[in-house]
Structure formats: C-alpha cells, structure tokens
Amino acid sequence: MNKNLIGLTGGIATGKSTVANYLATAYNLPILDADIYARDAVSIGSPILSQIAEKYGKDIILNDGNLNRAKLGEIIFNHLEERHWVENIIHPYVRNCFDKAINESFANTLILVIPLLFEANLENLVNEIWVVSCSEQQQQQRLIERNHLTLEQAAARINSQLPITEKIARADVNLDNSSTLELLLQQIDIVVKNLS
User: What is the pTM of this model?
Assistant: First the structure.
C-alpha cells in the first residue's frame, strides 16, 4: 500500500502544533512528531544523552538525570559546529523512529511533523510538504511569550533555521498563520479536501 506521507514543517513558533492538533482532532489523521522522538533520544539513561554529557560535562545533566535543555540551547544556538554535532547524533535516531512508525501504521495518510525537515534532509521521507508560516516579527513575539526568551535568544533560534521564505519556496502547500486562527483552519480544510 502506498501511503500518503505529509511532511508538516515551518519555522519555530509559526504554528505547526496548532495545525497538527487540528488535523488530529478534526480529521483523525495520525501525527508522528519529530520533537517527541528527539526528546526520547535524550531521555534519562539513553546512549545519546551519555554522549552529550561526555562532550559538555556533567553540568549538562539536571539533578533528576534529565538533560538541561536551557544549557544545551545556549551552546547550540550560539555555536554552529556544536549544533551540527548534536543534530548529527539525534537526526538518525529520529529518522529510524519515523521509519518504524510508518511501517507499523495501517493508516493511508500520515502527518509527519518535522520542524527541521529541510535542515535534516528528510524531504525523501515524505511525498508532500506543507509549511506553516508567519512573519518573523510574529515568530519572535510568540517565541518570547511562549519560551520566556530575550529578543536575542529568540532571534538566535529563528536564525538557526532555514529562512521561512526558502521553506515556502520548497513546499507544496503554504499555510499562512499570520492572521486569525479561523483563517488558518479554513486553509487547512481546503487542503485536506484536496487530498486524494
């Protein structure tokens, strides 16, 4: 059976989760989420977490054994080569999780939420790409409010990804999330109706 694998991507804080949640609740579409797999990759006692601790020292681990995400974020969003090192050990794990989940699913259509779809070269995992977009100012504002970041921290995270204009140019569908939630959901409805 040929599955319809839709890659849902976009910039940080553009609204990917909102779109994924709506697709799951309104259309019952199964969601496979790269962020969940990435969190699992660095779960307590995992080999990848051990590698990270070996490289950055014990301070990168919290007292409860979890990864200190804020500390790792400071390292990887300010040093490109460190970000590449971390991504190179996490991305293969995430890809394996996707492969396994796709093979085990009986659904015709699957939504793969992959924030770094282009950056991690995972386009060949999917046969259609939907990008969720908004203006950079909106991204910054949402990031600052959601993650309690400074303007500089928000900018560093946005700049660590491909520009949203480039993602839009490489996608099959652009879901514009710069207006109201109602307008975003209307766009999703139209796109889903066109799914074969």
Answer: 0.91
DSSP annotation of 162: -
Hey, how many other C-beta atoms are within 10 angstroms of the C-beta on 146?
Answer: 11
DSSP per position, 20-49: HHHHHHHH---EEEHHHHHHHHTSTT-HHH
Q: What is the pLDDT of residues 40-90, one digit of tens each?
A: 999 999 999 999 999 999 899 999 999 999 999 989 988 989 999 999 999
Assign 3-class secondary structure to 85-143: HHHHHHHHHHHHHHHHHHHHCCCCEEEEECCCCCCCCCHHHCCEEEEEECCHHHHHHHH
Average pLDDT over residues 7-33: 96
Instruction: Report the C-alpha gap between 9 and 130 in whole angstroms.
Output: 6
* CA-wise closest residue to 192 among 2, 3, 6: 6
150 with 142: CB under 8 angstroms?
Answer: no
Of the candidates 89, 94, 86, the one whose C-alpha atom is nearest the C-alpha of residue 37 is 94
Residues 5, 110: Cα–Cα separation, whole Å:
5
Angle at which helix 80-104 crosses helix 47-56, to 10 degrees, equals 180
User: Within 10 Å of residue 19's Cβ, how many Cβ atoms?
Assistant: 25
Given a cut of 80, is residue 1 above it in pLDDT? no
What percent of the chain has a predicted confidence (pLDDT) above 70? 99
